[in-house]
Structures are given as structure tokens and as C-alpha cells.
Amino acid sequence: MKTKLILLLSVMCFSMAGHAQFPNRPRTANDSLISTEVLPGNKMAFRIYAPEAKAVSLSGDIMVRGLQFTKDNRGVWEAITESLNPGSYRYHFVVDGVNVYDPKNPSFNENRPLVDVATINSEFFSMKNVPHGMVSQVYYPSATTGTTRRMQIYTPPGYHTSTDKLPVLYLIHGGGDSDVAWPNVGRANFIMDNLLAEGKTKPMIVVMPNGSMDVAEFAKEMMNDIIPYIEKNFRVLTDKDNRAVAGLSMGGLETTEIALPNPDQFGYVGILSSGWFENDEAMYKKYEAILDKQAETFKKNVKLLWISMGGQEDIAWKNCQKMMQTFDKYGIKYHYTEMEGGHSWYVWRHDLKNLAPMLFR
User: Fold this and answer.
1) In the predicted model, is pLDDT for residue 182 greater than 90?
2) Domain chopping of the chain, boundaries
3) Mean pLDDT, residues 195-218
4) Can you list the pairs that 72-77 forms with residues at least 24 positions away whose Cβ atoms lie under 8 Å?
5) Which fold has domain 25-118?
6) Does the N terminus or the C terminus of the chain have fewer Cβ atoms within 10 A?
7) What is the mean pLDDT of the chain?
8) What is the distance between the terminal CA atoms of the chain, rounded to a whole angstrom?
């Protein structure tokens, strides 16, 4: 009886497994579809199976003007970009007006897939055979918001077996992103690993908070919640000369909101692809009032004000030029750098690679 029961269970399991592996449905082009493919010359092919769709387009970090999808007789829509700069790009399809996140791509950043375009020019942010640091997901109490919030913290190789205290870079993402943007899309941890392996930067902790909130409120949280939490829970140096803050786009605005009123708290400040809105008189009135009080202290205490732009095609370029005129008016010196690439992660990865070696010297 026992032998018959075992045999019956075995047959049932085999039957269920066979049904799972070979479902009773017709096969389609989607079964073998390769949804993203890097082609020669850094071109990228995007494909989605949508036989009943009337229109398909692409959205996300890859914003290619005039990109057209065409449908073949199998129901597969395809578009091929022109040559892309090396990097990691988030994307999604728009099918008949509905956002569709690629079901064939297992690499997700929060709720959007990633696709890599890599060449020799991307080596500085690639994962290499070098000592690697750790990225920790940390939850902390925010008295400013009355909630528990999240941030990502990079600690360099050897931190957890050492007793040394390290300087800290507070690195802020842009609008529409979250704390995972810098490590996932910006490749901040790999950039730091590679710079350290080449002896080009000092070991430091990189704190990547979630700045998706009102600019003034986030500045308050940075000073009252985030920095105190880091200095209580991590081995860090706590003087201004070992504390830096930098941010891109919206994060650049948050950086000015944090650093200008507190020039005795930061020795290094980085503003990436950002600037006060060109025609916002109230914004300029606000920051000029701050500079009236703090400019001399800022000039005395801040060792480096580093400003970067992605060329004139960067959507923040005009804002930045006018903001720098205000710094000129108050005699505040800055290091300005510009490269082609627009308002994009291609530029901001280079920014981190170029800024980090200048910190804490």
C-alpha cells in the first residue's frame, strides 16, 4: 500500500511539473524575444511584443528625438537608436498611452528596468576586479517629517575592519529620483571603488539620502536629522573640513539651501547641473539676503565650491550662468567645469569621478 502511494505521488508530481513546463498554449514571438540589445556603434535596439497595439514609444533616461517603432508580422515592435553615450539608462515603453515596464528585463531600479551601454569610456564606473566597498540601506527617524525615512550609505573597502574615522560626502540625487539613484544608476559605489584602487581619492563615506521633498524641508532634515544620525552611528570626522555636500539638478538647489546658510558646517560644496531659476526674482532675493549675511564666512570657510554643467544643451545652463553672476557679485570664487552630454547621468557620473579626488585635501 505504501509503495503504491509513493508511486501515485511521483506520477502526480511528474504530471504537474510537465504541465508547468509545457503549458497548453500556443507559442508566440514573445517566448524568445530579446527586448534590449546593444548593437555595433553603441546603438540600442528596443523591442516589445504587443500585437494589438496601435502605437509604441519609449520614455525614461533615453530621450531620443524622432525615435520610431515599427511592428513586424509577428506583433513585435522595434526601434533602434543612434549611437548612445556609455552608461546605464532607465527606460519604459509607452503602449497606446500606457506606461509598460519591460517584463523581459530582470534588472530593475525600484520600478524601472536598467539597460547598460558600455564601451572603453565607461571603465571608470564599471565593476572591476578591485576591492569593493559596501552600500547599506539604512532607515532612520526623521523628526523633521515625523516619519522613518531611508538612505543609502557607501562605506569604502576596509571600513568595517578598521578603527579610522573618515570624512563624509553627502551626495543628493535629482528631481523624480530617490536615494537609490546614485548607487544604481549613477554607479557611485563603483566610481569610488575604482578611484580608491587607483589611489586618486581619499577614503570617505558617501551618504546618499532621499531628497524627494520640499527643498527647504530637506535642508532642515539634513542638518537636524541626517548628519546627526551619521555622526552618531558611523565612524566619521565631524569638523567642516571633513564634511562635503553635493547634488545634481534639484539636489543642486538643495545643496545651496543647505550650504549657504551654514558656511561653518561644510568645507566642500558641489553644484551639478543646477542653478537658481533664471526669472525667479523671489528666489534671487532670498539667496542674496542669505549671502548678505554669510558671504564673508562662506569665502573664509569653504575650501572648494565646485560647479559643473552638461554644456549649453543642459536644461539648467542658463540658470547656472545667472547664479554664478550672483556669486561673482559677492566675490565668491568657484571652480567651474563643463562637458557635453546635457542634463544626464552620463555627465553626472563624470562629475563624481572628477569631484571626489578634489575633496578633503
Assistant:
1) yes
2) 25-118, 124-358
3) 97
4) 74/28, 74/29, 74/49, 75/28, 75/29, 75/49, 75/50, 75/51, 76/29, 76/30, 76/33, 76/47, 76/48, 76/49, 77/47, 77/48, 77/49, 77/50, 77/53
5) Immunoglobulin-like (2.60.40)
6) N
7) 90
8) 80
Q: Which amino acid is at 67?
A: L
Closest CA to 84 of 146, 38, 152, 24: 38
For residue 117, pLDDT over 90 is answered with no
Copy the grid coordinates of residue 257: 539651501
Q: What value, to the nearest 5°, has the Cα angle with vertex 259 and ends 300 and 282?
A: 110
pTM: 0.78
Taking alpha carbons only, the member of 152, 150, 156, 151 closest to residue 134 is 156
pLDDT at position 42 is 87
Which residue type is seen at 272? L
For residue 245, report the phi and psi dihedrals to the nearest 5 degrees.
-135, 135
Cβ neighbour number for residue 22 with a 10 Å cutoff: 8
Residue with cell 500556443: 26
Q: Summarize pLDDT for 307-354 with one digit per residue, the tens.
A: 999 999 999 999 999 999 999 999 999 999 999 999 999 999 999 999
Cα distances from 77 to residues 31, 41, 162, 276, 307, in angstroms, run 14, 22, 53, 42, 42
Lowest mean pLDDT among 35-49, 221-235, 242-256, 319-333: 35-49
- Residues 106, 36: contact at Cβ < 8 Å? no
215, 175 in Cβ contact below 8 A? Answer: no
Q: What is the predicted pLDDT for the residue at 12?
A: 40
Q: What are phi and psi of 10, to 5 degrees?
A: -65, -45
Give the pLDDT confidence score for residue 113 in this predicted structure: 60
CB 343 within 8 A of CB 314: yes
- The single residue listed with the C-alpha cell 541626517 is 226
**Grid cell locating 94:** 509607452
**Local confidence band at 20 (pLDDT 50, 70, 90 cut-offs):** very low
